[in-house]
Amino acid sequence: MHTENLPAWTHEHVFNAGSHAAERGTRLVMWITAAMMVVEITAGWWFNSMALLADGWHMSSHAVAIGLSAFAYAAARRYASDSRFAFGTWKIEVLAGFASAIFLLGVAALMVFASIERMFSPQPIHYQEAMIIAVIGLVVNIACAVILNGAHDHEHHDNDANTHHHGHDHHHDLNLKSAYLHVVADAATSVLAIAALAGGWFFGWSWMDPVMGIIGAGLVAVWAKGLIAETGKVLLDREMDHPVVDEIREVIEADLARGETRIADLHVWRVGKRAYSCALSLVTHDATLTAQHVRERLARHEEIVHTTIEIQQCH
């Protein structure tokens, strides 16, 4: 029986210029979002707009979530060389995205409760003033989205310069995606708030204000559910349906089958944005097959960065 491991791999190898750009972008957006949050919540209470208030509280969740994203980048960078993290610190970023999604579900529930309460206890709304604040909020959201999209482009170009893909690019930065979708979702609720205020201002449809609050909460909940599923998949190492698993099987079945080699056990899990670890156990009648030979065959797939190979010879 032969067993061989690839050299140790850490998060340091992938915390590149794109990651630093994402960290700077999320930190800037966090402060912008926090400032606008205070303005919208204050204006919502002052002008009695449930849609504007809901948008403000929604933005507060974004401020916290984007703050978590910025903190995750800083923590991942700080502990990148810490040997206690067996496969690096990338999952700190994924955990931040998962936590922000959970928090966002709670905020969505509060938005629904407040909107229903306003339906049964309507309050006069200062439409003109509330509309101005809502439009400013939308402009801020668009600006934040542009900042984060620029960080995403920086990361994408940086990765293209260092990594070759094999037809399946599913390795996006989940932490950056979390921050970006928070901003996009908030822009959507800003649009709903503007629509509600316009309906009440021009047509007297005061019922639109709490209704749009509920619709906005629903959109937030749907988005949060999607992010929970995506980040939870990574945290729970549910990667055995990823194309890289089929590529590993293809190497064994197509390239090594002549020695009557078969896979006895296979485990694949993600350890970085574009990096996977593999534990592979083979049974073979090929007396010349070595772990180094298998590793050379797998080397064509650069996303496999850490491999443990066990070979059992059958006589």
Your description of this structure?
By secondary structure, the protein is α+β, with helices and mostly antiparallel strands. It folds into 2 domains: 11-235, Alpha-lytic protease prodomain-like; 240-313, Cation efflux protein, cytoplasmic domain (Alpha-Beta Plaits). Helices cover 65% and strands 11% of the residues. The chain has 8 helices and 4 strands, in the order E-H-H-H-H-H-H-H-E-E-H-E. It has helices at residues 17-47, 50-78, 90-120, 127-162, 174-203, 208-235, 243-255, 291-298; strands spanning 2-5, 262-272, 275-284, 304-313. It has a 4-stranded mixed β-sheet, with helices on one face. Helix 5 (174-203) runs antiparallel to helix 6.
In short:
With 315 residues, the chain is α+β, with helices and mostly antiparallel strands. 65% of the residues lie in helices and 11% in strands.
- Gyration radius from CA atoms, angstroms: 25 Å
Task: Name the CATH superfamily classification of the largest domain.
Answer: Cation efflux protein transmembrane domain
**Total strand count, please?**
4
**Whole-number average pLDDT?**
77
Order of helices and strands: EHHHHHHHEEHE
Strand % is 5-15%
Strand order of the largest sheet: 1-4-3-2
The CATH topology assignment of the largest domain is Alpha-lytic protease prodomain-like
| Secondary-structure-derived class | alpha+beta
Termini separation (Å)?
A: 12 Å
